[in-house]
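Technical appendix A lists one of the benchmark inputs used to test multi-chain prediction within the project. The record comprises two sequence entries:
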Amino acid sequence: MLKPFIAGTMAALGLLTFSWSMRAQTETPKQTDETKRNWNNDPTGNRINRSLDAGQKAGPAPRRDLSGIWDATATGGVEPAGVAEHPAVYPGDTPGSEAEAKRFRGGQPDEKGVVNPLPYTPLGEAALKANRPTGQSVRAVPSVLGNDPGNKCDPLGFPYMENFEFRTNELVQTKNQVIFLGQYHHKWRIIWTDGRELPKDPPPRWNGYSVGHWQDDYTFVAETMGMNEKSWIDHAGRPHSKELRVTEIFHLVDHDTMEHTEIINDPVMYTEPWMAHNKLILRRQPPDFDIREIFCSPSEIQRYNEFVGDPINPQEK
Amino acid sequence: MPKRFVITAIALLALLTFSPVLRAQTAPAKNAETKGMPPWNDAPPGKAAYAGTVKRPPPRRDLSGIWNGQAEGGVQNDGALEHPAVAAGQPAKERGGQADEKNIARPIPYTPAGLAALQANKPTAGVRAVGPDRQNNPVDICDPVGFPQLDLLRLKVVEFAQAENQVLALYQFSDTWRVIWTDGRALPDAKSAEPRWNGYSVGRWVDDYTFVVQTMGVDDRTWLDNAGRPHTTNMRVEERYHLADYDTLELTVTIDDPEYYRQRWQALNKFVLHRLPDNFDIEESVCSPSGIANYNKLLENVLSTPEK
């Protein structure tokens, strides 16, 4: 009886694990029309996405300017089974399919059978197995057994901040920086554009050290290194070492569309570089778009676990 | 002897509980390789290295820049700088254990409800300090710092960037950011706005060098400062940023929360932030629950070692 119960609760937990960070979104009182327009208080949160009106033709992209508010929620930026290019799911895994049902049983020790496997080194494979993700990958475990640092409000770090809940984010340009303001966990990072070189053997940071340059008028390339290895790469528990280098390519297709490509290069954990995002679409939001707060709060998680997580335990006795 | 050991240990624990947050700041900077290049991972230079070195008027209607509050007391361990929870001349080692803030040098005008809320908050600093085993500061478990505590706890380095309709603040402490809208929008209806950790902020230039921000709708789970000053969700906060000269930004923060305070009070009064070089790399200062757990475990092991 115990096993089916755990399996049954896993799907629920997998979904509800997200809830703590979205608590405030479910307690929204009625809004006036004016408030709705100016402040993003709608209970559906990020689903307010005004630039996605059908039939709207975008103008040309601005030259060498990423500034703006960009949404990936509606275009695959929420990645509960791992990065968009390598989700840890089975082939044919679509809603309602047998593969999806199997995935939701999770608990697989490795990524055998997944649709687009990653080229792990033996060390990488061992590191992967030490990470126990929740979420919706084939290796997902119930939240009480998981060890995702992000689930207990450790910093997501880079590139995890862009590989799990890559929601609505703002980019700001100064004369020597591109500033990334992330919605999920509400953190910022800076990509220096003043020509400085990346540091050599710096003290590790959760977000690493980033520099960027314009390759052409519409393509900005950022290089990041020096990440704290306590963070994961994605919500499927993909590991990285301190040797990780990440290349990001931000390409402005038109005024309203940006493509985000992310390449992981970590020879300690992977036998070759691989793409986490391949032209993942970001849609421009209106400049007055109010990005909703999503913070991680340990006290909220604790409360959530008291009400939802812990009731599992009496059943197991 | 054992008693004294416990007290010492508590003081040590109180200090080290903050340490994971500060760890990266104390790690040695490695700039040797970047000599001649813009620096990475530096602590702010001494004030004399930059404050007042550029003689020119401040830019008009522009807060953009990287500003250092650390040199002028931005790390406010005993509570908001204008009202630290300490008695005049009271040494740090003699603080703590008081039930209220009686006898502090600059008292705050609490209402009875405000005083009750204060007493429910158990800080590890000031005249009301308790031991780490009894404290309940949400920041110590890595809950969001929230506004205005972002200004009133560890106001270290902050970067301001301006978009056409926003002023954006990037805070070093806890690596978080907030938006101040400048497009003329009204604040949301107080009855309908869901509380946010940072609230809702709008700002306007009252003259070429003075930017005034109004904030409301702040989640009442946050404290105002490290001394545990409370607030309700009906609090309004005014921030007044004044560019005194090119290198100097003055910040005044006024708290208005009639349920908890009989009158408005100033938490910061012309607090000075100095402009840092534009290429200054703000060091990471993030809160990590696992880092805190590791420290606490380490201390537990130290404390449980039998005395010889």
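Residues 1-32, 313-317 of chain A have pLDDT under 50 and may be disordered. Chain A touches chain B through 54 residues (CB under 8 Å). Comparable benchmark entries are summarised in Table A2.
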